[in-house]
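Q: I'm writing up a methods section and want to include an example of the input and output format. Could you take the sequence below and give the corresponding predicted structure tokens, formatted cleanly so I can copy it straight into the document?
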Amino acid sequence: MPSPLPPPPPPLFLLSLLLMFFPTTLPQPTNPQPGTMPESELDTLFRIMDSMSFDQEDWRSSYPNPCSPGSSSWPGIECKPGDEDSYMHVSRLDFGTPPNPSCKKTATFPHLIFSLPFLQSAFFFDCFTENKTTLTVPTTGLMNSSLQQLSLRSNPALAGPIPPQISLLKSLQVLTLSQNRLSGDIPSGLFSLTSLMHLDLSYNSLTGTLPARLGNLKNLIGLDLSYNLLSGVIPSMIGQLGLLQKLDLSSNSLTGPIPESVENLGSLFFLALSNNGLTGKLPLGISKLQSLEYFIMESNPVNMPLPIGFGSLARLQELRLSNSGYSGPIPPSFSRLTNLSTLSLQNNQLTGKIPVGLGNLSHIYHLNLSKNSLSGVVPFDAGFLSRLGKNLDLSGNPGLCLNPNEAYNVKVGVNLCNNSSSSSLISQAPSSTPNQMIIIFLLQAISSWILSWITMS
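A: Here is the clean output for your methods example:
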């Protein structure tokens, strides 16, 4: 009877023999060289560069290690080390503005940028000019996106809607899509990006209304939706943007009044609402906006007296209210705006005299009161008239006239006053009497005689 076979060696014994005779057959852990990028990320980067720019015939050959310390990389790229690995990762890409890479005339929006997992900033200026392209955001893989700034400006071939998937970019702090040809409604999901600090969608063809969800953007500092086709009213929820410093809604088709809630925007220093269809009285609480430096609300059918509350805005530098149907007198409280540099009230229905105190505004350099129904003597002295020069326009007010004593070499669009009207000017010097004229003549004669005697001696 044959003897039984010996039992097979244990697996650990076989593994020991394998490692003894073939020590190099198993892969060993290695650390990446300094400046090394993951190969997949490097491949994505070069695909983006080759599709966007002709500046290099072959970007991979020209810059094989674009994030390596000490090796040359192109302007417009920035890299950072990973927090959880030893690799370098692309954190910023800029295109269009020198010295950054220029863009091909045939370039289209590179959606592959969203495949760079550590990318924080992407800028495209004047890149998409000929081939029509759209802003494309993938529907998956963005939950952990690092993108904080996305800027596409002055791209005439960038058209179509803002994709709703943009709401997946939860880390976005700055979104600039200005001066393109975007159309359609602003996607409601965009107002769920609560990290946003600056939102600029100006100079497009966006339509629809401003949703109440706008009030969700509590961290917003700058909001510019100007030069679009937006309609409807300004939602009262805008008053919840307590950190807002700049608000520009000009050149749309907005209607109704400015909501009372704007009085809560205590940080606001720039407010522009021109070229809309806004009506009704200005909020009483507008005088609470003590940080306001620029109030620009021209060409709206307001049709009301000028609010005296503007005189309480001590920091105001520019006040532009032209072509809006304002009536009645210019409030004397405007003379308290000591930081004012520009006051534009032209093409309204203002009446009465120009407040004398406006002539004491030492910082003003542009004053336009033309095309109203103002009357009386212009209360500005020669120094004020000469300082403003061509930046002063009083034309189109038939009832205004200029004091001849102050009108030396100054053209402001009004005629000289006759004797009866100029005598009513408070600041005008009184006319000299005959006795005063004789005394002046004698003093001049004595001075001439003394001067001649000194010269001869």
